[in-house]
Each structure stands twice: as structure tokens, then as C-alpha cells.
Amino acid sequence: MLLFATNAVATPGTAIVSSWRTNTTHFHPRFSVSSAVEGLGFPAFLPKEVENIKDPSARKLASRIQRLQVTLWKTYIRKPVILVGPSLGAAIAIDFAVQYPEAVEKLVLIDASVYVEGTGSMATLPKAVAYAGVSLLKSVMLRLFVNVLAFEKLPLSTSIDWMNIGRLHCMYDWWADATVNFMSSGGYDVACLIPKINQKTLIIWGEDDKIISSKLGVRLHCELPNAIIRQIPNCGHIPHVEKPDSVARLIKEFVQDQEDCSRKEAQLVSSLQ
Asked: InterPro entries, per this entry (predicted)?
């Protein structure tokens, strides 16, 4: 099973999942596509984030959501998954793989945002300033500019569509509070966890990513103990949306190569008996 880790605060996870559902036929028949808890609208919480939530009710809810992620796997999946993490979702995927290695068979990290040291100085901003900054994320012009950075040569009509999709989650009543709380918590800082990843990992990177340099993809490849890296030409920060066929093919090859190796090992053992 392919399980997608996305960040509900920063990314409309349903858009990511739906973009993949059109390509499920490219994968091996025994694999199905499922959204992670985050993709269903629940944010992923690292332990320190839960501890830093000041409101008792909100902290209790965050703890329940954190437990729900593990319960989802233990109750309904009950076998190791191939965990796919695009952008900031890669930080969630790495954190989950380290905390629950028995739940993750392999990792696929797409244009991974894993070297940002949390939210930095934004964690100490006065609340009024933080809310003012967050409100800018709803800006039509800002969203269109982000599309210029995220995609490679996107037609204007498509850019407008993605601008509208990118703003959807900003319209929730709770979104501003959730985003400010995320900033105040310190955000994700998983760089120290990277060497602890033992699962075989596929790194996919858009060669023309203007948001996260492909040099960081090379660095990630060097720091992960068991990883391969594949770059997609003429592609920006969101390859699974911009070049879905290419990404589906790479994941299919990644999965099948491992299956072929396992099959050959089994045949070798059988011949020696």
C-alpha cells in the first residue's frame, strides 16, 4: 500500500491525493493508494508540538490525533506501507518512519523539505504580527507568484486553477489559528533523524525546483543510509502534480526492483536446499 503523508496546514492534501488517483493503474496491481491521516484534513503533530500547545482542549485534541495516526495503521492497514512524503510531508514521513519503523517498508521523498530548522524566528513573533503575516497567505497575487516558483512554465489558466485550489484550506475558520499555533510551536526540525532512517528510500526531485534546491536532494541522498535519487527534467517543486506519469513510473520501478531482488533471493535459497 502507498500511504501519502501531507501537511494539512500548508498543503491541501486532498488535491495531492486526487492527482494520484488518476494514475493508480501505473502501479503494481497489489498496491492501492490511500491518503494519510494528514491528507484527510488532520494535521500531523510531532511530540514537541503537542507539548507546546497551550490551550488544554487543543492539546488534548492534538494528542488524540497523534494517537489516531498510529491506530489507523494498527487497526486497518496492519502491514508495512510504502510511505510517500512530498515537500513538508517528507518531514512527517521521516518522523513517522523513525518512530514506527515496523509500519514503514520503504520511503519515497519528493522534493523534500527536511532541512528547514522549524519556523525559526517566526516562533517568537507577537501574535498580532503572526496573524497579519498568515493573512497574506490568502492573497491571490501571492498564490500566483508561488505557482511561478512551484511549477515549470505553467499556463495562466492552469495557474489560476491551482491558485484557487491552493487557497481552499485558508478559508476554514480554524485555519489562521492552526497556522499561528504551528508557527509558535517551532515547526518541524527532522534533520537529525535522517541518519536514523533504515528503510530503502527513493528520492524524487524536479530539476527546476525554485523552492528547494536540487542540491539539498543530493545532500539528502548522501545522508540517507540506503537511498537512490532520480531527477525529473523540466519539472518544478511538485512533480507528482506536474509530471504524474514520470513519478508513477519511478515509484513502480522502485517497488518492482525490490520485488525482483526478493524473488531472486528466494530462488537462490531454494536452489541451495
From this structure: AB_hydrolase_1, AB_hydrolase_fold
CA distance 53 to 72: 23
Where does the pLDDT of residue 63 fall: very low under 50, low under 70, confident under 90, or very high at 90 and above? low
> CA 192 → CA 200, 209, 220, distances in Å?
18, 24, 12
28 is catalytic: no
Catalytic-labelled residue, pool 113, 237, 240, 246: 237
Is 245 annotated as catalytic?
no
* Integer Cα distance of 235 and 154 in angstroms: 10
Q: Provide the strand spans (E) within the chain.
A: 2-4, 33-35, 81-86, 104-110, 200-206, 227-232
Q: Taking all residues of the chain, what is their mean pLDDT, rounded to a whole number?
A: 76
Q: Which residue has the cell 530539476?
A: 207
Specify whether domain 2-120+187-272 bears CATH 3.40.50.1820. Answer: yes
Mean pLDDT, rounded, for 14-40? 35
Q: pLDDT value at position 108?
A: 95
Q: Which three cell numbers stand for residue 113?
A: 523539505
Q: Give the active site residue among 35, 184, 209, 246.
A: 209
Share of the chain above pLDDT 70, in %: 68
**Grid coordinates belonging to 41:** 484534513
Write down the domain spans for the chain: 2-120+187-272
> Is this prediction's pTM over 0.70?
yes
Q: Quick check: is 184 catalytic?
A: no
What b/e sequence results for 130-166 when a residue is b if at least 16 CB atoms lie within 10 Å of its CB, and e otherwise?
Answer: beeebeebeeeeebbebbeebbbebeeeebeebbebb
